[in-house]
């Protein structure tokens, strides 16, 4: 009887997993290879929040300033607004030097003793949005570098073609080590999830390292009760407040990535994930249910598969699991190719099982209050 119960739950879990793959994750095949073209005719503001980011600004800001986003007359149509959020390093000095080189750079400074009405990075972002004179907004981080001088034009193109919000890919630099591989695989997997859900008409998140939207999206999100509850999560809360089945676009163009360094230690990465995952409690209940069902069935298939190897059901379990893995790893391989992460393919079996451990470790932080501060 026990073996029959294991077999029944295992088969049901695999069925649900395959349904997720064939309904949500295959949507990645619908994303155009190149971002949809558009002539740049509307001005754009790029917002970068910087707190003690002197070194990152020196390395990355020139690539942002070098974007080719011009109109038919060759006039530059973008400004970069860097919000210096009470930095204690040489951020102000670095920005002053760049101001002498780049006329389209604007600096907004937040004093150390300035009274804040919302916590963390959201206050700095709000100051940047308020300083923007354009309706079109693109946000990225100080530690991010555009993958090409076409990044801005490609991220803005869907907005000019009628979309309200655009999510891009925030790529991490490849480095040796298991931690770097897992971070990049988890980032790939997360992109596959939120892009698949968005294209299936159920948008729920994006990454603030590479995001574009209309200013009224920020206004709407900042008016929600959840906005003042967390020091981070502005990207997910904006999607929650503004995105719908028809107004969100996904850009998966290699020239439209942002590139940044991944965390170097497990402790740093855990702290980062704790901060990011705490926004999950503010997703729509239907999204929470879908994500929980996906994560729980993923855990069940691996746990029950291992248990099935010691029962008379093991041959059937092995065939079923191979079929499930073939479907998933094929989709992941295509996604890895699109995102320039092909070296991860041979690690799929390890990463697939490791995601089980990841969910057990981090699921509590979805429900706990986030006390992490913007640093």
Defining key terms:
375 residues; Spore Coat Polysaccharide Biosynthesis Protein SpsA, Chain A; 2 domains; seven-stranded mixed β-sheet; 12 helices; elongated
Question: What can you see in these coordinates?
Answer:
The chain is α/β, with parallel strands linked by helices. The protein folds into 2 domains: 2-28 and 286-361, no CATH class; 32-280, Spore Coat Polysaccharide Biosynthesis Protein SpsA, Chain A. The chain is built from 12 helices and 10 strands. It has helices at residues 2-23, 54-65, 91-99, 121-131, 151-160, 178-199, 215-222, 234-242, 266-277, 285-308, 314-338, 348-362, and strands spanning 44-50, 78-85, 105-110, 136-141, 145-146, 165-167, 170-172, 211-214, 248-250, 258-260. It has a 7-stranded mixed β-sheet with strand order 3-2-1-4-8-6-9, sandwiched between helices. The longest helix is centred in the last third of the chain and has 25 residues, at 314-338. The radius of gyration is 22 Å and the shape is elongated.
What is this structure, in a nutshell?
With 375 residues, the protein is α/β, with parallel strands linked by helices. The protein has helices spanning 2-23, 54-65, 91-99, 121-131, 151-160, 178-199, 215-222, 234-242, 266-277, 285-308, 314-338, 348-362; strands at 44-50, 78-85, 105-110, 136-141, 145-146, 165-167, 170-172, 211-214, 248-250, 258-260. A 7-stranded mixed beta sheet has the order 3-2-1-4-8-6-9, sandwiched between helices.
């Amino acid at each position: 009887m026990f073996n029959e119960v294991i077999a029944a739950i295992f088969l049901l879990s695999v069925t649900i997993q395959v349904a997720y793959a064939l309904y949500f994750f295959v949507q990645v095949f619908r994303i155009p290879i190149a971002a949809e073209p558009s002539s740049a005719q509307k001005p754009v503001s790029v917002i970068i929040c910087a707190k003690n980011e002197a070194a990152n600004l020196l390395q990355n800001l020139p690539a942002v300033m070098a974007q080719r986003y011009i109109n038919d007359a060759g006039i530059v149509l973008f400004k970069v607004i860097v919000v210096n959020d009470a930095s204690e390093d040489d951020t102000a000095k670095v920005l002053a030097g760049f101001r002498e080189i780049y006329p389209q750079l604007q600096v907004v400074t937040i004093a150390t003793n300035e009274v804040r009405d919302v916590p963390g990075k959201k206050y700095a972002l709000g100051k940047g949005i308020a300083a923007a004179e354009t309706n079109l907004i693109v946000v990225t981080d100080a530690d991010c570098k555009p993958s090409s001088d076409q990044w801005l034009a490609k991220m803005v193109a869907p907005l000019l073609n009628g979309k309200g919000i655009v999510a891009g890919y925030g790529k991490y630099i490849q480095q040796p080590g298991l931690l770097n591989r897992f971070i990049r695989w988890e980032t790939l997997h997360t992109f596959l999830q939120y892009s698949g859900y968005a294209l299936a008409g159920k948008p729920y998140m994006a990454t603030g390292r590479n995001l574009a939207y209309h200013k009224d999206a920020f206004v709407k999100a900042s008016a929600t009760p959840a906005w003042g509850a967390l020091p981070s999560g502005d990207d997910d809360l904006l999607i929650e407040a503004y995105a719908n089945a028809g107004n969100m676009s996904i850009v998966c163009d290699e020239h439209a990535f942002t590139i940044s360094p991944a965390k170097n230690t497990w402790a740093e990465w855990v702290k980062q994930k704790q901060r990011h995952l705490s926004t999950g409690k503010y997703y729509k209940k239907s999204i929470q249910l879908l994500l929980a069902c996906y994560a729980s069935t993923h855990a069940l298939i691996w746990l029950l598969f291992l248990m099935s190897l010691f029962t008379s059901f093991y041959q059937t379990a092995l065939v079923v699991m191979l079929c499930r893995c073939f479907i998933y790893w094929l989709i992941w391989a295509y996604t890895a190719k699109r995102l320039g992460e092909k070296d991860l393919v041979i690690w799929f079996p390890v990463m697939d099982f490791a995601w089980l451990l990841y969910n057990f470790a981090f699921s509590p932080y979805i429900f706990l209050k986030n006390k992490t501060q913007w640093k």
